[in-house]
Design brief:
- By secondary structure, the chain is mainly alpha-helical.
- It is built from 14 helices and no strands.
- Helix 1 (about 10-30) runs parallel beside helix 13, helix 2 packs across helix 12 (about 235-255) and helix 13 packs across helix 14.
Length: about 325
């Protein structure tokens, strides 16, 4: 496979991750089940590895032609910012927080640049978007400075340097900020970028990756209580984030197994559909949970109703808001 092939298996992974986060957060926030909040960390981590992986071809085009830099920015901003602002206004309205200090911190993605920077973290899922947006802003400039020669080697050195720097500062922040701080997680997306370079080789070992994934998920679940009970211990704090990244790599590589199903139109359509819904599902699901709490919607049908709303609204949002915006994006040269 070359870098221009569309990978429907990763569309499926994107949709799986979006709905996985939404399902876990419903149980974590509506039913106060901390186990599901723990599991949700994995699904969010998948987004980072996916971002670096799918952005690789675009970033290489920026590296090959500096004129593509502004095109890259426009493509990313048109894709991510309008919908984010819409949902930020909606969730802020629930808390009567529109145009407050916290609102503008969210708006400019700076809410996680330092610990306890927010007065009220009422849009908690936005932390991952802050990492993504600053990565979009800075990394294209970094690769232009590094130059074309040995770009992947330089990127690997950068990746190792970022992890080393993170470990050095680990004792200065709590485990939550170590995992969610904006400038603490660039390495997660960078890892996806590196993996894309080695994609052909990784594709050949996808079944082996799946076996390793099963063992990794077993340990992830087995040590849940230990990690939650000792999350501020330096050793656990650092290794847990690294473990999340290892599992994310294995999940991404394991999903290539589904690529053999691309000959089935039903698989293509389903993967494309859930992939298109993912961004709005991620942004919207916490709003539905807040509304469910306010309306005291806690019945045996809550999950079905929740998933139905996510599916219906996100489909509507894609076709009537996202798709028109996507058509406006300029093409990379």
């Amino acid at each position: 496979m070359n870098n221009t092939n569309h990978l429907y298996s990763l569309d499926l992974l994107r949709g799986f991750s979006g709905y996985g986060v939404a399902y876990c957060h419903l149980n974590a926030f509506l039913y106060n089940n901390s186990n599901y909040e723990y599991y949700s960390l994995l699904f969010v981590e998948f987004f980072f590895i996916l971002s670096g992986f799918v952005l690789y071809p675009q970033l290489i085009k920026v590296l090959n032609n500096k004129k593509n830099l502004m095109i890259f920015y426009k493509r990313r901003w048109i894709r991510t910012l309008p919908l984010y602002v819409i949902f930020l206004l909606l969730v802020s309205s629930i808390f009567d927080a529109n145009f407050t200090n916290d609102f503008f911190k969210y708006l400019f993605f700076v809410q996680k640049i330092s610990p306890n920077f927010l007065s009220n973290d009422y849009y908690p899922v936005a932390w991952s978007l802050s990492i993504e947006e600053f990565f979009y802003l800075f990394f294209p400039l970094i690769i232009l400075l590094m130059g074309k020669k040995n770009i992947i080697l330089k990127t690997i050195i950068l990746f190792i340097s970022l992890i080393t720097l993170k470990v050095f500062f680990a004792d200065m922040v709590n485990s939550n900020f170590f995992r969610t701080g904006t400038f603490f997680r660039f390495d997660a997306i960078l890892l996806g970028f590196i993996l894309r370079y080695f994609h052909d080789k990784l594709f050949k070992i996808k079944y082996f990756s799946f076996l390793l994934l099963l063992f990794s998920l077993y340990f992830f679940n087995y040590f849940k209580d230990t990690i939650l009970g000792q999350e501020e211990v330096f050793f656990i704090k650092v290794l847990f984030v690294l473990f999340l990244q290892v599992i994310s790599c294995l999940v991404l590589n394991s999903f290539f197994i589904f690529e053999y199903l691309i000959n089935f139109n039903l698989f293509k359509k389903f993967s494309t559909l859930v992939s298109r819904q993912t961004y709005s599902v991620y942004l919207m699901h916490i709003i539905l949970i807040y509304l469910f709490e306010k309306l005291n919607l806690d019945t045996s049908y809550t999950l079905i109703f929740y998933m139905f709303l996510l599916f219906s609204i996100s489909t509507f949002v894609y076709y009537f808001i996202e798709r028109p915006l996507l058509k406006m994006r300029p093409k990379l040269q």
